């Protein structure tokens, strides 16, 4: 996001981000959000196996 130099400073001393995005930046953001949402949906759709703890202490065949 771009920061306008003419914008008054915020409470932290940094300029407030109030500039509008260009058309290209808006399209890039929309594409990014669509890809991100697709990836999240794909991850959530993966099969989940039930987690089971391993026995402790580990059994050793060297006894």
Automatic annotation (TrEMBL):
<protein>
    <submittedName>
        <fullName>Uncharacterized protein</fullName>
    </submittedName>
</protein>
